[in-house]
Amino acid sequence: MAEAIPDFSDYSMPSLAAERTPDWSGDAIDAGILAALLGWWILTRRWRSGWRWAPLLVALAWLGFVRQGCLCPVGSLGAVLAAVMQPMVALPAAAVVLVGLPLLVALFWGRAFCGGVCPLGALQEVVGMRSRRLPLAAARWLTPIPFLVLFATIGVAAIGERLPCVLDPWVVLFRRTGHLTAWLALALWLVAAVVVWRPFCRLLCPLGAALGLASRLAWRPRRIAADRCRECGACAPTCPVHAITSHRIDPAACLDCGRCQGSCRSGAIV
Amino acid sequence: MTTGPTRRDLLRTAARCTAVLALGGGAAALLRRAQPAGAWSIDPSVCTGCDGCASGCVVPGSAVRCVNDFDRCGYCAVCYGYFKGGIDAVPVDEPANRICPQEAIIRRRVGDLQWEYTIDPERCDGCGACVAPCRTYGHASFRLRVDAERCLDCSRCGIASACMPQAIAWRAEPVTSEEGRHG
How far apart are CA B171 and CA B174, in angstroms? Predict the structure, then answer.
C-alpha cells in the first residue's frame, strides 16, 4: 500500500551528541584573571593610591556577578576536597585553580588572596566601609572557628558533600534566586558586615584558615622591618584583625589588607 | 642579631619547598581528572521517567527537556506517550486525555495514518511523564535529555543525587543510542 508522503513540520530534534567540544578556554580565562589580580595586589604593596584596590572590585564583578558566585573560592575548596574523597563528584578545572593559586601565593606572600582578590571579602568591604573591628576579647574567642569549619569541611567531604556551599550566604545575592531562609541569612551577614569588618572572613571562612596555615611558611609576608621599626606602636590599633602584637605581624592572621601601612611614619611596614 | 639565615629560616624554606611541590603535584593530578569536555547526560536505557529531573534540578523549570527521537518514533495515531490510558486509550484529542501536564507535546497529522509529535522546549519541564508509557507500549522515542544551554554544569548535580536508577552521570560522550530496543 502506497502511503502519502508525510508533510513534516520544520521542527528538528535537538542533537543527542555532545554539543560542547573539549574547551579549557573558560578555565584559562578564570586562571588568567586570578593570576593578574594576585600579581597586582602583591606588586602594589607599597602604593597608597586608590588604584591598589582595583582587584577587589574586579574580582567582585567577575567571580561574583559575571560567574554568578559559582565557582566561589570558598565553595571551590569544598568541591576540591569532595572530589579528592569521592571519585564520582565532577570537578571543574577552575575550582582547582581557584584553590591552588591562592595557596601557592600564600606560601610566598601570605594571605594576599584574602586581602585583595576574594570576591566575598570584596563584598563585605564594600558594605563595611565604616565598619569597626571586633573587640579583642571576642576576636580571641572566635579565631579558632574557621579552623573548626575547615576540619568539618574535610570531614563532610568524605561523603561527597560540600559544607562551604551550605554555609555561604553570598551566592543568593550573586544569583538573585534562593529560598527565603537563604535571603534572611544574607541579610544577617550583610548587617554584620556593616557593623564589623569582614565577619565572614573572621568567623567562618575555611579557605582563609587553610591560607593562614600556608602563610606560616611564607617567604615574604607583610612584615615590620625590625631595623626600621621605632616601636612606637602606632600600627597595632589600625589592624582590623588584631594581627599586630609586639611590633610583629602574625602572617597567619594578617589578611594583607595594607591598612597598617599608612600609620607607620618610619616606613617599616613592607 | 645574626646576619645570615638561621636554622629556623632554613627549616621554613625546606617546609615551603615541600609544600610547593606537594601543591603542584596535587593540582596536576586533579587537573588531569577535571573534565572540560564532559557534560551531565542521561542514559535512556536506564531512565525510568520518574519525576526526578523536574524536581531535582537547581535550574528553575529544570535543565532537562524531553525530545522525540524521530529515528525511533512510529508516528502512531494513538501515541501512548501522548494519550492517557495505555493500550486502552480512547483517541479523542482533548486536554483531559493527554498525559503531558505541561501541554508541551504538539500533535500534528503528517499523513493518512501518521502523526508527528514534537515538544515545545519552553513548556516541557523534563518530568518524564511521557517517557515511561512510550517505552512500555511504543517505540521508546520520547527520551529525556540535558539541555546544554540550560545546564549550569554543577559539580554535584541535584538530579544525579535524586535519580534512583542512576541514569544521569557526568560523561565525556553523551549516550545517543539505546541498545537492545526495537526501533
Answer: 6
Residue A168 identity: D
Model ipTM value: 0.79
Helices A73-85, A145-157: crossing angle, 10 deg rounding:
40
Residues 6+ apart with CB under 8 A from B180: B45
- The verdict on a CB contact (< 8 Å) between B16 and A70 is no
Residue B64 is predicted with a pLDDT of 93
CB atoms within 10 A of CB B4: 6
* Cβ of residue A10 closer than 8 Å to a chain B Cβ: no
Residue with cell 597586582: A40
CA distance A226 to B89: 89
Q: What are the residues whose beta carbons fall under 8 Å from the beta carbon of B83, sequence distance 6 or more?
A: B89, B90, B91, B93, B97, B98, B99
Write out pLDDT tens, residues B81-124.
999 877 776 778 888 889 999 999 999 888 888 899 999 999 99
Query: Is there a contact between B145 and A16 if contact means CB atoms under 8 Å apart?
Result: yes
- CA B55, CA B48: separation in Å to the nearest integer? 15
Record: contact A14-B145, CB cut-off 8 A = yes
The C-alpha atoms of residue A170 and residue A190 are separated, in whole angstroms, by: 9
pLDDT given at position A10: 78
Window 112-151 of B, Cβ < 8 Å to A? 112-114, 116, 118, 121, 145, 147-148
- Angle between helix axes A73-85 and A206-215 (nearest 10 degrees) is 80
Asked if B10 reaches chain A (Cβ–Cβ under 8 Å), the answer is: no
Check: CB of residue B175 under 8 Å from CB of residue B42: yes
* Torsion A155-A158-A163-A166 (CA) sign: negative
pLDDT tens profile A86-100: 776 778 888 899 999
Spatial CA neighbour of B118 closest among A13, A16, A6, A5 = A13
Q: pTM for the full model?
A: 0.76
Burial grade of A52 (CB within 10 A; 0-12, 13-18, 19 or more): middle
In a mutational test of the A interface, the residue from B156, B159, B173, B176 whose CB has the highest number of chain A CBs within 10 Å is B156
Within B34-139, residue ranges assigned H as helices are 52-56, 131-137
Taking every pair of C-alpha atoms in chain B, what is the biggest distance, in angstroms? 100
Please, are residues A175 and A68 in contact by the beta-carbon 8 Å criterion? yes
User: Are A64 and A123 within 8 A, CB to CB?
Assistant: yes
Helix and strand counts by DSSP (H, E) for chain B: 4, 6
